[in-house]
Amino acid sequence: MRVLPSLNSLKVFEAAGECLNFTLAAKVLNVTQGAVSRQISQLEDYLGITLFSRAKGKLALTAQGQALLAVIQHSFSEIEREIGQIRMPNLRQRLAILAPPTFCSRWLCPRIHLFTQQYGQYDLQIYTEREEGVSVDIEICFDEVSQAGQHEGVILMEEYIAVCSQALLKDAASLIQGSLANNSHRMLHIRHKGSQLPSWDEWLHAANIPLPMGLHKSLTMSTQEQVINAAVAGGGYAVVDRNMVDLLLKNGELQQFDPTSVPSRFGYLLKIAPLKLGTSKVEDFCAWLQLHASPHA
What we know:
Blueprint: H1 7-19, H2 22-29, H3 33-47, E1 52-55, E2 58-61, H4 63-87, H5 89-92, E3 94-98, H6 101-108, H7 112-118, E4 123-127, E5 138-144, E6 154-164, H8 172-176, E7 187-192, E8 195-196, H9 199-206, E9 219-221, H10 224-232, E10 237-241, H11 242-251, E11 255-272, H12 280-293
């Protein structure tokens, strides 16, 4: 059982906080000004704080009142949005997907036509960042996966390979032979949660290539997408996920300059909003995703 003040008192407080006038709030709610005052007084008693201050005849929110109003506005908006999606048939057919930029541009978008051909009834919307007012049905996250084989919701596990452009391929031998001291400035790194993703370290270890002590010159970028673009342009050598560059390898825009490949502990995972679990649109997309993300797809 949730311990909360009455829903009515929260609705009255929201109106009063937005109007900053009890009389106007009463008109909005179609109640008397006295009813608004009583509800606000009861809510203040329940919380043990003062929500409004009065100075020179003007009503203003206290700091605690401002904080509570922001929470209530956000919560009511979320409830209204979710109920609207349940009620409105056209919204039930809208499928909103949130995914990392690299996954969207390098894996999902080149294949998404296969989904729309099979499931043309859905209004598909793809986002790479959260937007105000958008209720996401499915979120695809990139993170470390400790037990990939047992972790429910894993779509893809990364597999590190070393790539470069055709123009740099002839110089890759010096990198493989251990001349990193002279080539570290051409090593393209990916930033993840404030640190470099360990893709280079793990690949060099697997390839038995020593990394000189005290080596710091390198180029680090915010996303794997940026690193891939830089590598395609001839900007350096990159260790990236094979899943994200398979099409570039096939069309020759990137070259794998060493056969070493390394399974990563990082991968892409599915998160589904609780209210969307079991809906046909979510079930259809998840089934399609698992089919095309399988190693043999």
